[in-house]
């Protein structure tokens, strides 16, 4: 059994000098810091540009101006405390406002700053909302990290969702396999809980958050095998982060290594323009090149990810580009009329987000003839 010690005070990071710690106080006063000794052990402290360090250790450039805390307008889709409903078939329950570590590029850092009703430990209103809407067949548990909660608390939430007949899929978004694999290894009741709630026609999905190949330690790999043996479907999603995985060879290694252990890449996200995230963002069209170059280094099972933006209006996939144009498509859309809409824009190499592009050159949609109703 391994006891992992969490660290919430930058002063406790022995590898940082006093001068560096003092210079980071302004950052940690604004954006909360949390890590643990297991994850910190993955850092090469002799390398100031170490990618794992960049994931978790504050940096002065986080104070560069730009962005907003709710970059995707998630609050607009919060219908009752702790529940987001943006797409017809999927609801999100924000059940926790704590993570095993706080990624410096987190798009929900507002939850760790503000005290509001976006997260709710009392999910009764959210459960009623889901019960009343039979179109919802998939519920994503997120936050914060649901797997940081006590197993008994998680059991209660999953148990209530399993009572709702039309909820066939429960997804859990978690970076705990990377941040602290001993959360699983040392708690067999957690694995038993997940196994008990996976059946032939109702599955639990673990949406893992591995950002860099070095996070795939032997302990992390063991955890993914344990989950798979329990019947959990495992996939991975990661943002494209400057200085972490924005090299095609690094991204390809991540995709390939994940495929080897049965964790297919699901989404590669464009870094959201959240306040504090400017230092981590890669221009969109450059990101597309990195993504495609990485995919060229992968086998078929490793190249299943989609490169998308989680925009306020929906998930917008970056489909392709020519010298003068870029092509985007609504992979999922909040507005039924936007479903699968294909768009052509003039190329703009300094664009980081959908809003940075000028008026669409041309577009095509098949949604209207099918009279889609309700959000996707």
Beta-strand percentage?
Answer: 15-25%
Order of helices and strands: EHEHHEEEHEHEHHHEHEHEHEEEEE
Unreliable residue runs: 370-374
As a whole number of angstroms, the C-alpha radius of gyration is 20 Å
Instruction: Tell me the strand order in the biggest sheet.
Output: 3-4-5-6-7-8-9-10-11-12-13-14-15
Shape: globular
User: Helicity level, as a percent range?
Assistant: 25-40%
Q: pLDDT average, as an integer?
A: 94
What structural category arises from helix and sheet content?
alpha/beta
Main sheet overview = 13 strands, mixed
Can you offer a commentary on this structure?
- This protein is of the alpha/beta class and 376 residues long.
- The chain has a domain at 6-63.
- It is built from 11 helices and 15 strands.
- The longest helix is centred in the N-terminal third of the chain and has 13 residues, at 18-30.
- The chain is globular and about 55 Å long.
